[in-house]
Amino acid sequence: MGTDSTLAGKEVPIIGTDVFRWIELSVPSSSSNIPTAVDGTNATTIAPPTVDDRASCFVLEDPSAYLIWRIHKLQPHVLELLELNASKELPKAGLRFIFPYPLCPFAFVCKNEISRNSRFPYLLYVLTVTGVAYLLKIRNVSAYASSALFPAEDLFELNVCDYVSNHVPITAVTATAGCVVIGRSDGSVCCFRLGVIDTSAPGFVHELRDEAGVSRLWGLMSRGKMVGAVQDMEISELHGKRFVFVLHSDGTLRIWDLSSHSRVFNHTVTGATFRRLWVGQFDPDSSTIPLSILYKHGLDEELEMISLHSILYNFGERNVFSMDPSVQNITLEEGQCLDVKITLDKIWILKDDELVSHMLTTNVEEVEAFSYALQEEVVADQLFQSSEHQADEILQIACSIFSSSKEDVVPFISSIFLRKLLLPGVHHNAALHATLAEYSRHLPESDLQALTADGLKQEVLSLIEHEVGSEKLSILHSWKCFLTRYFHNWCKNNAIYGLLVDSSTDAVGLIRKSSVSIFRSLEDIERIVEGSSDEVGELTGLVDLLDDDLECEILVELLRCVMSFSQQLGKTASSIFYESVLTAPVISSEDIVHCIVKILETGSCISGPNEKELIDHKSLRKLSAEMFLSLQSLYRKASAWSRILNVIQGFLKFLVPQKIIQNFDTEVSSNISSSIIVHTTYQISKVMFESAWDFLLFLSYLVDIGGQVHLSHDDITKIQLEIVPMLQEIIFEWLIINFFAITPSAPATTEDFNSKLSSLHIDCNTGKQLWNEKLGRCDFTLAFILLLNVRSSSTDHGHLLKRFPNMQSFINRMRDFISWIIWGQSGGSSNFLSRSIDLAFILFKHGQYEAAEQLLMMAEAHLLKEKTSQSIQESDGGWCIRQHLLGCCLLAQVQCGLHTTQKDNKVFDAIRCFFRSSSGNGASEALQSLSEDVGIPYLGFSGCASTAAWKLQYYQWAMQLFERYSISEGACQFALAALEQVDEAMKDENNPVNGSITTTRGRLWANVFIFALDLGRYYDAYCAIVSNPDEESKYICLRRFIIVLYEQGAIKILCSNKLPLIGLVEKVEQELAWKAERSDISAKPNLYKLLYAFQMHQHNWRRAANYMYMYSTRLRTEAASKDYQGSSLMLQERLNALSAAINSLHLVHPAYAWIDPPANGSSLLGEHYPTADNDAEPERWQSCIDVEKLENEFVLTSAEYKLSLVNVKWTFSGKDGALSDLAELLVNNNLYDMAFTILLRFFKGSALKRELERVLSAISLRCCLDKVESTWVEEHGQLVTSSKLEMVVHGSPVTHHTTPQTDGSSCWATLKIYLEKYKEFHGRLPVIVAETLLRADPQIELPLWLVQLFKEGQKERMSGMSGRESNPASLFQLYVSYGRYTEATNLLLECIQSFASVRPADIIRRKRSFAAWFPYTTIERLLYQLEELTRKGHMVEQCDKLKRMLLSSLQNHLKTLKVDSEDAISVSS
């Protein structure tokens, strides 16, 4: 700032103007005589190019709006247009026009007064460097689509080269509605009525010149005295007429009347190089027009100056203009002049580093300059760029504070830097995007805009952590580099372009590269702290608090001491203090104050100082010495510390937020002005907080060195007991205001059905949708939410609300807002602790649960400081309301997607708050008095006379609240707490609880059961069932208990020893059985199996068997009804169930080894399944199901299962012959084991022999189909168990798939295996097999093993051909019967030879064997058949040979018999 200027105001950024969505519109061109060039670089340049960034604002009267245009020097062919309205929301989008050629540094936008078409509210005039003027009729922003072509029908295009010579460059251009005026290097001025009349119509173009007449041919007529090139022009309207003010390069100033195209004023200024011209608003009272000219003095070309002139005018019969001889010269010492605006009483000069205003006065020697702080200074201070050591000081102080917990230093420092970075006015989307890009984080700018405050924090933190390790020094260095880069990008993206001035309201703003801001006046505290302490005497509000001039002098000296003290560590320490309050660190705020004072007093921070720390140490020691001298001087001036302390107390009253009574009912809407008020509130609260903080540090330091400066014990006591608590209260209040102003709101988190419907835009509320879009953004803080609840003063409404008000108005409205926050609408709050409840209600109502929690926690912490020696519970129940509201806030946050640990902590804290709330003083009256519209869950009950009745009702309400949020932990605790109050509460006859004690306790125990069940605490849930005195409720809970255990897969707990089922075993069994009957048979876990296990655990074997049989029956029924009898898995399950039932009955005494048939009386066993014998059974046994019946069903089910494995469906029908058919079906599918098991199980005696014959005959027939040599057999094959009942009783069937036996060798091997095994059951089986084979194929060669079966059993071969049923004689007969004469002859010869080979020593035994039978009849048949064949001529030679062999053998045999007979007779005699 200038050294001679007085600080008069500060810049207030309009938050959100950096995140516009630009709608790009390409402007077409139809000019044919201009060289074509896409980028305009090769086009003919006849107009001045844009070499500097330019911007301006046009203020509309009706409707009130601010039209802002910008042209960037790096994009000269692009113009941005933005419309702002102080009484409306900040627009989401602006227009970005892309022209085919670069633009001149000029644009004019105005209201459409030509056609007055509502479709085109605005007009835009621009000129390109090629000499093409454009008139664009602008529609509303919503009418354009992004990346579209600007409609050609909304465009007027004029090539001025068609009317003027392109050899004379254009040097200046200006415009007004319906007219474009250009000035050229030859001093000529020409106006075009663009958009008003046709370009070919007479009067479209006029050259402004001294001579009268209409110019049609340029250059042919004299223009009088030659003037310099046109330097600058501006159009102004006076009394309905438009005048062009023209500044020429030679200092000539002319005024032309556009209506008559005549010159009305001419004046020449010499001795300088003239650059710019600005014309101010005319003053009707003094009939003057202020005018300023920017020039550079001839003696010093680097020094810019502004001369301020006044032109007098008199509108009578003639328009007379004259120059006032007085000239006000303003020297611009530093910086480049960017823009100038002149109002009725001030001139505003914008330089690249400051804004300065001067009063318009005739006394040119006493011109006071007022400066206005720009945002660059604020951002630099917040980002620790003002001093390179500020960030280091934060680390030093943090290390000193957290000396016992070093791990907290790094996150604490990062939290400070992050909060500073995201402050409103500091956070800038484009700057952050550019900074992230420098770190190779190429996040799209739109995605960056969409991030919430938490998302931005995570993005920046991840970048910092990625850059360096976790050591604090590295983190600090990384943060310093990041903030330095960010500040550079902030300045780059917020370069100053121009001024925004509304003369009607005296509002002044600033147009930057990517933002817009407004200026405000200074608050009184800012005049003292940031201005000059000499202004203390000019502040009426402060002087009234002091008694005399001496106290005023004392205050001035005192302020100098405090500010000097603050310059050392005050600002840095305030950041640490503020962060400690919000983040709740491990160290208290009092410890922070003590630590900082110790640093200031001793001049040391940490051990092991380096060179910089030694310099800091010397600086602190020097400060201590200076402070000692200043305090001694102050003490001598005041004569006593008591007077100084009184002055301090008086000044502290000045820091207390003002109480303003507001009795107006006008609601404040959310608009741009609201944004300015909120940010102003932040700026003022920051100064107030830091001022109070500085005084707290100063007084703490004063107490520490009290003995050195003659501070008495009474003075110290007064400081500690009166002034410091007052300061703490002030700091707390301003800290809360600052908290509201800078804390981003939380995003909307409601994801219920209604919100999802609203997202479909079905009867949606647009305002609500826009509100939800704002929530969570960095620029939408909590203060915006609170501001909407303010009833503001009516003096700020009316037409002023439609426009930006004057600078002081923002201060007034800010004071109203702060007063409302601290004192309420009517100022009735006695202290902020009670007021914090109302504010927390508002925050809660708008979904800001975490902010409401922080507010209440800070209020609670402050309350603990105030009432350490007494109870913190107010008698009016305020403490209870705070605890109640805090519990609601914590509970609501649980629904916002917290992590598990955070969620659990919030739940436990909420439980504690509700319990504390219910037990406080006056809790019943205070909480029952809360209305339903406060925003928190409504209690909904009243009239609780006794404490027990109140707690019972309150605990039940809390239980229901936790239940609503699906938090069973809290609901369970409050249900148990309510149970403790039932007996006491029900004693009161007037209690509001309905029902008896039993009913109430039963309902509460039922709730405890439900919540414990939800938490998976099955033991607690069962205990709640047992404890329930209401029998009906108990059994309902028991049923629910079983259902939930079943659904959660924890039903097995019933079969363990964890639950004492004494007295409930039958009920549990009933519920399980009821559930089993109504559950899907395929559901997991299976309840029938559970019942089986349950009964086995209770040693009820028969009941266990019964449930498994019921399970088997259900499986069979389900299979039949759903037509999937062939399902092998279901059959396997049936087999398992039957096996379990059989095994269970084997554990019972045989006399009781039976179960009852199904309850419906339809015993499938009795109806369909056969028994092992046909003997009549007693009637009692016929109605029961014993082990034998179960085994029969098991066997048949096994057969069905085996068939299902080969995709054969079969179900036992119970008809005659069904079992025989089953055996045949099994054989046909190679299931021989199962077939023989069926035969052995269900057939006896002759029936068994018959079925064995059928089965083996079938197997034999299958062997006949083989082409494999029948004498080769497989030695390994399947065998049934040694006992025919072993599989049935003791095990399950083989579950693996039986491979079909298709090859011949395996078929013969199978026949051999089963024939050898089952011939003991029926001796004729070999005969049956051989006969079957021969019948099927008379020429077949019988297997050797089969022939051997006929020869077995003959002892020593002495029995001839007799023996068992399958003997050689039987085989001999089969050979003869089927024409196998050769085999028959060989068999007979073998038998006879065997008989004859007996040794003579065995004569007695051989004699005995004569009783054996030889098939003589069959032998005769054989001989007869051989003779017949010989006679018929068939195989004559072979038959003769056989016959001879047979006769010879028989003859020898008969001889042997004769000799043996004779021998026998001899022996006997």
Gap from first CA to last CA: 167 Å
Largest sheet composition: 8 strands, mixed
Helix content: 40-55%
| Average pLDDT taken over every residue | 80
Shape, per Cα inertia axes = elongated
Low-pLDDT runs: 212-224, 752-764, 794-800, 1161-1168, 1173-1181, 1267-1302, 1408-1412
What is the tally of beta strands?
A: 35
Rg, Cα atoms, Å: 56 Å
Strand content: 5-15%
- In terms of structural class, how would the helical and strand content be classed? alpha+beta
Main-sheet strand order equals 25-26-27-28-1-31-30-29
- How many helical elements? 48
Describe, in plain words, how this protein is organized in 3D.
The radius of gyration is 56 Å and the shape is elongated. The protein is an alpha+beta fold and 1469 residues long. β30 (507-512) and β31 (516-521) form a beta hairpin. It starts with a strand and ends with a helix. The strands form 8 sheets. The protein has an 8-stranded mixed β-sheet with strand order 25-26-27-28-1-31-30-29. A 6-stranded mixed β-sheet has the order 3-4-5-6-2-10, with no helix packed on it. Residues 212-224, 752-764, 794-800, 1161-1168, 1173-1181, 1267-1302 and 1408-1412 have low confidence and may be disordered. The longest helix is centred in the middle third of the chain and has 35 residues, at 549-583. The chain contains 48 helices and 35 strands.
Quick recap of the structure?
Helices cover 48% and strands 15% of the residues. By secondary structure, it is of the alpha+beta class.
